[in-house]
């Protein structure tokens, strides 16, 4: 990797510097648009005591779920448990610290973190356990709670196409949380299906500018379906 060229040749190089105890932001929604190969590399490296921020924690045996199996996650900040039975069991047994956050609030926490905004007020969660211990203010007759922004030591992202400079395009709904995560990491690593030469991407179609990206790697993906439904 030299100058503006963000390409790296191995997943080991892509996650160089990731250490136990760090905060990791991961894009994806369910199994759609997840950085599956970067997650597999994190499992291989064996780092532990991670705080992981993602919409959910994959499923049993795939995605972020593999990090739960090896007890590599200390705290999970997510919107829902989903189809992951191990996530549910570790939560109920007190083995995993979990901070469940309304989905829109989680998205805004990441967006604010990427924009350098330390906190914001939202009406979502007022009067519920979500608001416990948080500052409350009234604006125009309505109550709001103060939510801190989220940033991370590493952000792992799944894109569709990128150029050498780290400009990224996502494909349809696989965009989901990825652009928000990409902007909020101190070191942002993007894995994509295809890397093209500078100038091949239409500038008007770029979702994440290369200014947010530190490393980009081309990978191959399984693209699992989380819950397959077929006619009887």
Descriptive key words:
Glutaconate Coenzyme A-transferase; about 230 residues; alpha/beta; three-stranded antiparallel sheet; 6 helices
Describe it:
The structure is a single chain. The chain has helices spanning 11-14, 36-45, 65-69, 85-92, 103-115, 178-183; strands spanning 23-26, 50-53, 73-78, 97-100, 119-122, 136-139, 142-148, 152-158, 161-163, 168-169, 185-192, 194-196, 215-218. The strands form 3 sheets. It has a 7-stranded parallel beta sheet with strand order 4-3-2-1-8-11-13. Strands 5-7-6 form a 3-stranded antiparallel beta sheet. The mean pLDDT is 95. The longest helix has 13 residues, at 103-115. Helices cover 20% and strands 26% of the residues. The chain has one domain (22-117, 150-218): Glutaconate Coenzyme A-transferase, CATH 3.40.1080.10. It is α/β, with parallel strands linked by helices and 232 residues long.
Number of strands: 13
pLDDT averaged over residues: 95
Helical run tally: 6
* Radius of gyration of CA atoms, rounded to a whole number: 18 Å
**Main sheet summary:** 7 strands, parallel
Shape: globular
The amount of beta strand, in percent, is: 25-35%
pLDDT under 50 segments (min length 5)?
Answer: none
The arrangement of helices and strands along the chain is: HEHEHEHEHEEEEEEHEEE
List the strand order in the largest sheet: 4-3-2-1-8-11-13
Structural class: alpha/beta
At the third CATH level, what is the topology name? Glutaconate Coenzyme A-transferase
Helix fraction, binned, reads 10-25%
